[in-house]
Amino acid sequence: MSTSRSENDLAAIYDAMACGVVVRDAAGAVVFANAAAKRIFGRAPEELDGVEPTGEDRRIREDGTTMPDDEVPNVAAQTRGESIRNVMMGMVRADGYVRWLLVDAVPIKDAFGRVREVVSSFTDVTDRKKAEHELERLALHDPLTGLPNRSLLLDRLEQALRTARRLSTPLALLVMDLDRFKEINDTFGHPAGDLLIREVAERISADLRETDTVARLGGDEFALILPGADEGGAGHVAQKIIAALQRPFDVEGRAHEIAISIGIAVSPQHGEDAETLMRRADMAMYVAKRTPGGSAVYAEHNDPEGSNQLALMAELRHTIEADELHVVYQPIVGFNEGEVMRVEALARWRHPSRGLVAPGEFIPLAERSGLVQSLFSRVLAMTLAQCAEWKRANVPLQAAVNLSIRNLLDPDLPRIVGVALERAKIPPGWLAFEITETMLMAEPNRVLRTLAELRDLGVQVAIDDFGVGYSSLAYLQRLPAYAVKIDRSFVGRMTRDHGSSEIVKVITNLGHALGMKVVAEGIEDQATYDACAAAGCDSAQGFFVGRPMVATAIPAWLAQGHRTVTIN
Ligand code: C2E
Ligand code: MG
Ligand code: MG
User: Fold this and answer.
1) What distance, in Å, lies between the first and last C-alpha atoms of the chain?
2) Hey, which of 90-94, 200-204, 280-284, 307-311 has the most confident mean pLDDT?
3) Are strands 431-436 and 398-402 parallel, antiparallel or unpaired?
């Protein structure tokens, strides 16, 4: 083989090569580039000669991090004086496009061992990278929805948990499952089911932050990671998702309703590793399932390993069905004469072995187990039957029944109430409802509509436990409610704590400004009673005025001089 080829011959050989070749001098200036190099860089040969061959802004490593200058192969070969082989280097263009090159850089030294030139050869592997990426995407994503699959979710969850631990921030995991999806799949076939799943995925994904991850776990199960969210934040997102799915779905031209059950687990309280958190969110989801279209936060007492809650739920169901629930009535009286006298109906469960179980314990149980609708119907029926008796005895008392969020969001509520009033032959003015301020926030618009329907029926609504939520003034102003009930935590501290007493005054003024009556609840002594009267409250409720009592005790209590007025 001849050792002395002409430069033209050499250039022709270089140009015949598939890989790019660029030769730089010791100063880094390009002294030669072959045809492939020019093609790869998309430049005219004369443009490439003598200039840096890259129009790219930034070089990156294979993992996406920036490649420092001294790590760029030709620079490294120059400074270290040794060959650099097989470096994967990405070149990021201003528009974000990344060109991937597999690069070798070899130094050529002079007689003194100094680097005279550096020869870089490289292949464009962008297409191969893309194919690899696509394979990875396929392995980690659900093909139907394009969402991350279970294994990518677990990966992201572990990563997010590490970050949360480092920053001491909370993290919430939601596990969701469609209710009765199987029926649609079975009735309309898989293509229709697939379309529905896709639409559900879109609705769940809408409105999320960039840092949140939605995944399809399989079938009709989804999961959502919310970095930074605590229980409250997660509950809020859950409500939004439930609301987003409430719009009917179009399945083969017909509107279908699909509900979703959501289980929530929050780190660090409920677990600090991905597996525990997943298991607990899943467990919470099964609790939520008992009330279709609901959400539940993981609670230890729901954990079948840790308690007898399931047994208690079964007993509660039996109690409600067997009509063994009781209702007691607590009077609410006006500070001024002429105020309507009311009673609040409070449910009681007399358990054969546990004794009296407080509503604070069994109402949440009923909510979690789907019993709260029948519980409400029972309490409503008993209360209205009692009103009928008082009416016959000429004792006009308005009775207020407490609503759970699930009752309030039941689209059937106004109808159920209408039917119950008719059946008991009680004018609507005898009945009122109490809803807590925190319930208003779950689904403000739907609540407004329901309250308007109740008002149209002639039934009044009061906002209970007022002052502990964060309702906006603009919203409160639109509420068709007749009264606010100041939370007893403020009232109870009034005489000891100046702040609480100020809060009572402010809430009273606010209530009046909104055109509502103001009830102070939890009045336990004369001093508090007087302070509430001085603050301008309209009505009083509390042990000092009267304890919750059985219905038959009410006439005797009234006989002590408490007066009632006519209800229209
Ligand atoms: P609530 O609606 O705020 O009812 C007032 C609660 O305060 C009652 O507790 C009552 O006994 C208590 N209370 C009244 N005066 C005083 C007082 O002077 N001092 C103190 N410390 N407490 C007083 P109860 O009966 O244990 O009910 C607790 C909660 O359970 C109720 O709070 C209500 O939200 C819920 N609840 C009760 N019955 C029902 C029901 O039938 N359905 C629903 N959904 N919730 C109910
Ligand atoms: Mg109440
Ligand atoms: Mg209350």
Assistant:
1) 117
2) 200-204
3) parallel
CA of 308 to the centre of ligand 1 (A): 25
Q: What is the DSSP string of 295-352?
A: EEE--GGG-TTT--HHHHHHHHHHHHHTT-EEEEEEEEEESSTTPPPEEEEEEEEEET
Token pair for 74: 């030709």
Residue type, position 319, single letter: T
The winner for highest mean pLDDT among 313-322, 372-381, 463-472 is 372-381
Residue nearest to atom 10 of ligand 1 (CA): 548
User: In this structure, how many other beta carbons lie within 10 angstroms of the beta carbon of residue 132?
Assistant: 12
Contact 504, 528 (CB under 8 A): no
For the chain, domains (ranges, CATH) are 3-124 (3.30.450.20), 133-303 (3.30.70.270), 307-561 (3.20.20.450)
480-512: pLDDT as tens digits: 999 999 999 899 999 988 888 998 999 999 999
Radius of gyration of the chain (CA): 36
Per-residue pLDDT, averaged over 347-355, amounts to: 85
Atom in ligand 1 nearest the alpha carbon of residue 327: 41
Tell me, using a 6 A CB cutoff, whether residue 124 lines ligand 1.
no
- Asked whether 364 and 376 are in contact (CB, 8 A), the reply is no
Ligand 1: does its nearest atom lie under 6 Å from the Cβ of 528? no
Residue with tokens 């789907």: 370
Edge-to-edge order in the sheet of strand 58-60: 30-33, 20-25, 115-124, 98-109, 84-92, 58-60
Q: Among 291, 346, 550, which residue has the most ligand 1 atoms within 8 Å of its CB, making it the best to mutate?
A: 346
Going by alpha carbons, the residue nearest to atom 37 of ligand 1 is: 346
Residue 485 and residue 466 in contact, taking contact as beta carbons nearer than 8 Å: yes
Give backbone dihedrals phi and psi of 561, rounded to 5 degrees, phi first.
Answer: 115, 0
Q: Which helix (H) or strand (E) holds 418?
A: helix 413-424
Say what the pLDDT of residue 526 is: 94
Tokens of 246: 């409430």
Binding site membership of 464 for ligand 1 (Cβ less than 6 Å): yes
Angle at CA of residue 72, ends 68 and 78, nearest 5°: 120
- For the segment 314-336, the average pLDDT, to the nearest whole number, is 88
Amino acid (1-letter code) at residue 498: H
From 365, 380, 402, mutation site for ligand 1 pocket: most ligand atoms within 8 A of C-beta = 402
The total of other beta-carbon atoms located within 10 Å of residue 53's CB is 21
Which pLDDT score, from 0 to 100, does residue 47 have?
Answer: 57
Share of the chain above pLDDT 90, in %: 51
Structure tokens at 463: 């906002």
Any atom of ligand 1 within 6 Å of the Cβ of 330: yes
Alpha carbon distance 522, 263 (integer Å): 34
Contact yes or no for 467/440 (Cβ under 8 A)? no
Phi, psi of 523 (to 5 degrees): -80, 115
CB 176 within 8 A of CB 281: no
Q: How far is the CA of 169 from the centre of ligand 2 (A)?
A: 35
Instruction: Give distance in angstroms: CA of 448 to centre of ligand 1.
Output: 24
C-alpha 408 to ligand 3 mean position (Å): 16
